[in-house]
Write a structure and sequence with these properties.
alpha/beta, Nucleoside Triphosphate Pyrophosphohydrolase, Rossmann fold, 2 domains, seven-stranded mixed beta sheet, six-stranded mixed beta sheet, 9 helices, 13 strands
Length: about 325
């Protein structure tokens, strides 16, 4: 079903003296209290839209957490609208991911005249719309389950590379195509929205060049792991599995750039830390991920063990 208006929003949360608070905004035109949200502009993804709107409406730079779902409704003009929501937290000042974001102009006072941290109980009373209260309840469900605090691991398949059949050099130096280079640059804002502050990659050129634009934008060092190469994976797939398991257990927002032939091992590792009801969301057949596509793995800690709470798949628009 086609949608006329696409938008994104978030339930931005924090803890103060063990009390959970969320950020809500007042819209004078509509005379309501709402979760911050806004419409997609140009070619931006919903993820990029969400980050921009949070900055415009609340003044805060945020990083996205677990997706909370969608609202669907018809606006006064008769057009259909859908809004995707995430849990989100305010980024630390000086976070490297912020260097990869553009400048944002604050919303006018006619659009938003107040942004306020309130307790969840007060938010339930103040939010005008039922759909917003529903998203707030989904956040509380995560809190009650002890999995609201998550860390994203972004499994990234390298962007499109020159075909093996037409490249005469060593396999480890096979480069990205022109399209691949463009898509690698478009990955930068998507890695930024999740606050990626660590990049682990195969040292082969097509993987390095896929995540190099983000490293350049943020000032992060690329951490290369020989175990992530196709050749090493053929010989000792368990070493690659160990690298990924280490990343999942580290508790840092990490992008891991890999090759398509290694993805079955990646998926086996993920299955081991994913509840049965979520496993069906994992890719089921080759190629598992398209070139330049990201599988966002939201990881929580339960009894000091990593457990997957949600998955997302994103491929930047060209």
């Amino acid at each position: 079903m086609s949608v006329d208006i696409r938008a994104a929003g978030a339930v931005v949360w924090r803890r103060r003296s063990r009390t959970l608070e969320v950020l809500i905004v007042h819209r004078p035109t509509w005379k309501d209290w709402s979760l911050p949200k806004g419409k997609v502009k140009g070619e931006e993804t919903l993820h990029e839209c969400c980050i921009r709107e949070m900055k415009e409406e609340t003044g805060h730079d945020v990083v996205l957490g677990v997706p909370l779902g969608w609202q669907h409704y018809t606006v006064s003009s008769g057009k259909s609208k859908e809004v995707r929501y995430w849990a989100a937290t305010v980024a630390d000042k000086g976070h490297p991911a912020l260097a990869a974001r553009g400048k944002v102009q604050p919303a006018s006072k006619k659009e938003i005249d107040d942004a306020r941290w309130v307790t969840v109980k007060d938010a339930h009373k103040m939010l005008t719309h039922k759909g917003d209260r529903k998203m707030l309840q989904r956040l509380m469900d995560l809190e009650e389950a002890g999995v609201l605090c998550t860390t994203p691991v972004l499994v990234t398949r390298h962007a499109r590379a020159t075909k093996r059949s037409v490249y005469n050099g060593p396999e480890q130096t096979r480069p990205l195509t022109t399209t691949g280079v463009v898509r690698a640059k478009r990955l930068v804002p998507l890695l930024s929205v999740y606050g990626v502050d660590r990049v682990v990659t195969s040292p082969w050129k097509r993987c390095l060049d896929t995540v190099a634009p983000y490293a350049k934008a943020t000032g992060l060092e690329l951490e290369t792991r020989e175990a992530l190469t196709e050749a090493a994976h053929v010989k000792k797939p368990k070493k690659m599995a160990a690298v990924l398991s280490q990343v999942l257990g580290k508790g840092r927002a990490t992008a891991v750039c890999v090759h398509r032939p290694t993805l079955p091992t990646v998926l086996d590792v993920l299955k081991g830390v994913t509840p049965h009801h979520l496993r069906r969301q994992l890719p089921g057949k080759d190629p598992w991920l398209k070139t330049g596509e990201i599988m966002v793995v939201h990881v929580a800690k339960k009894k000091d063990k990593a457990v997957v709470i949600a998955f997302e798949k994103i491929r930047p628009a060209m």
